[in-house]
Amino acid sequence: MSLSPIEKAASGALASVIANTLVYPLDLSKTLIQTQVVPKSTPIDKSSSIDSVYQQSNDPKGEKKYKHTLDVLKRIYAKKGILGWYHGLFSSILGTAAQNFSYFYWYTIVKRVYANMHKKIPHHKASTFTELFLGALAAAISQMFTMPIGVITTQQQTDKDHNNLFQLAQQVYKKDGVTGFWRGLRVSLVLCINPSITYGSYERLRTLFYGEKQYLSPIESFSLGVVAKSLATVVTQPLIVSKAMLQKKDSDDPDHVRFDGFTHALEHLWSTERFKGLYKGIAPQLVKGVFVQGLLFMFKDQLDLFFMFLLQLLKAKKK
After folding, report:
1. Alpha carbons 212 and 122: distance in angstroms, whole number
2. Residue 69: CA atoms inside 13 Å, Cβ hemisphere, count?
3. Using alpha carbons only, what angle is made at residue 188 by residues 100 and 289, rounded to the nearest 5 degrees?
4. Tens digits of residue pLDDT in 129-163
5. What domains, with CATH codes, occur in the chain?
6. Confidence tier at 176 by pLDDT (50, 70, 90)
7. What is the pTM of this model?
8. Counting Cβ atoms within 10 Å, is residue 232 exposed (0-12), middle (13-18) or buried (19+)?
């Protein structure tokens, strides 16, 4: 017995909500770090650390830029307490649920279409490249539907005025029109290789270590998810940073730069901060990403089993 695309999508969405809620403060801190912009006028002194560069670039209130994850969490706690660590949680969870529901739905559809196309070939298995392509295709289709939620989520996480979702949506529309809700679409489509690498690697590692075993234990799923997400994050981190910078809420900060596209953001990062700019926020990104992905895979397999158990109960009652 197998789950339908809708049931698979619901399982994936619920698992992602649980996982992302558990590590949300890391998600908030990595967004704040990644959207910091060092002005181009700031000279790069090779003998100084990146911290000293940020200390030269303060906001209008004289506050230093965030240095690292712990610095973000300490300063938020000092101003707003524990609740400050969960600023923007609702929109993030809404976006996470929608994105994962959409991704798992289309991923299941795409894989079933591919399987049906090759069902006449006995014991046919997709190559690694094909697995990556199918994952990227599913992610690209999903992005077209869920991009506006991602834009609003990043806007809320970087909004110092604490506007609600409706107000932020109005501001995006007023500033850029309907296309503003798809700001960063090009880099998002390129970033489709991230879930592609994650799920492609996961499936390959799963086959390599566990063969045809249909359902893994929570520890097995978590371990494979951590390895797969780590690989994907290291490869795509510069694109992740540029996407966050594109979707950051506009402000009156004199250091604020409005980027024309992700190549403009990457060029700015390289000219101002070099590799440290391209990979800033990598620590919380990795910790948040690998734990979320590990937990997601761990919960998803268990939720799949739970859904199948419920379906069997329903069928038994009908009889």
Report:
1. 16
2. 16
3. 55
4. 787 788 788 888 888 888 888 788 777 777 777 77
5. 5-318 (1.50.40.10)
6. confident
7. 0.55
8. buried
